[in-house]
Amino acid sequence: MTAHLEIRSAQKFYKKYTAVDNVHLSINKGEFVTILGPSGSGKTTLLKLIAGFEELNSGAIFLDGQDITNKKAYDRNIGMVFQNYALFPHMTIFDNIAYPLRLRKIPKPELKEQVNKVLQTVRLEDFVSRYPSQLSGGQQQRVALARAIVFNPPLLLLDEPLGALDKNLRHQMQYEIKHIQEKLGITTVNVTHDQEEALTMSDRICVMNRGRIEQIDTPERLYNYPQSKFVSSFIGEVNWFHGEVIQEDSGMAVVKLLNGQVCKIKAQPNVTLNEAIILAIRPENIHVVREGTTYTNTYKATVLEKTYIGDSFRIEARTDTNEPLSIKLPYVVSREIVVGDEIGVGWHAGDASLIPDDEVKEVTPAS
Q: Which residues form the ABC transporter domain (predicted)?
């Protein structure tokens, strides 16, 4: 499939600071891609480069096969929703949404038809005569979205669009925006630092760190099979164990950890035999070993702390090889576990990932 939006070797410098460092990114038509990263990762700068608000120092940007690298922002015909919505307070909702069409000198009958159509899409047809100050935060957000899509742009950019909303409304709007995007089939690039938002809304997530892309993948693969230490720690909670792959057999990797324990996990193409690795496993993928249950890998662990978090408990423990271990267990499984208990814990071979340990040159596991 030919990329609808393609960024080639993008570089952006501010004096001695590299904000975007040799970024390559291809996005397919109709895809919802989130650029995710901490403050200073380069995600907002990359969005500004796509929008035309900043100029590349080197590289190129193509939209629908056309080179837009040197086009001004107003010539790129891209829709954009800002974090603060940027609505005109003196204009009605109808006029706010109609503004891009008036700039394009769309005839009045067609303009009215397009505005009314998009008002129905965002479910605001009863608010046409109101002003932004008379709307809730979620309603203002939908007005901003309507204004960004009313002229049928080839690309929609979202800059932290839910950052100003409270938690419950933010969750609701995540689904609303995704449903509208899917209905319209519009290629969308979203920028956020909110991991849950990225996992909920995206077809793919692009994780950035220090101006570079660490990994681009589906939410499920990004969460379950991170390819770098940064990605594994930035998205969700994780347990790390250091060691090396000592054997590969029948699709399984045999890993010897620094604590001397040997475990098996599903082989992965990003690591090689005798390479220093980090074994990463999510707390919810670790289970209590009970009678009649079997797991590929098992430990003994002592419970140090137990915290109630609603539908589950977070258990902080220490293994019999003196490794810290975080476990997330369903309420019904863990309600009888108390601090001081020694428990058996286990995990399946497909529930962990292997990450190259770039900080270790040689590995000398315990004998």
A: 5-235
